[in-house]
Amino acid sequence: MPASAASASPLHDLERKLREEIPLARAMDLRAAGYDGQALTLAAPLPPNINDKGCAFGGSLASLMTLAGWGLVRLQLQARGSDADVYVADSSIRYLAPVWGDFSAVARPLEGESFDAFLDTLQSRGRARIGIVCEVPLPDGTAAASLAARFVAIDPARVRAAAP
Is CATH 3.40.1080.10 correct for 3-162? Predict the structure, then answer.
């Protein structure tokens, strides 16, 4: 049976892709926890992501937030039939509080950013960028960490066609 026929959902497919193609995601025991069309939540248990203090390793928080942003852009592209490559162009992270248990990262577009505009630009120019914000929420609703990033999508077919 073709892979697409066996797929349970785009969210399940994303989790499988991350865990199969990115060894760090597998080592972190990353799980795709939710997707509502505008926000993606990835989750990870504390034990494989613990530091010497007994709380979550900052690198694991950064990785989960970056993967959530990448995954959100990837899901939006797939929903519109695009197989463009996605890259993180730049990011800034703030660590605000320690995380003492299992954690998640929620990614969404930066206020004022639009996936429709992003995809229109990708279609017309063969490349586009979008701002994504991501937070690791604490049980009280405050953020333990936040990431602001720009992700770039490049249509490989358009890049090849434009090459001399």
Answer: no
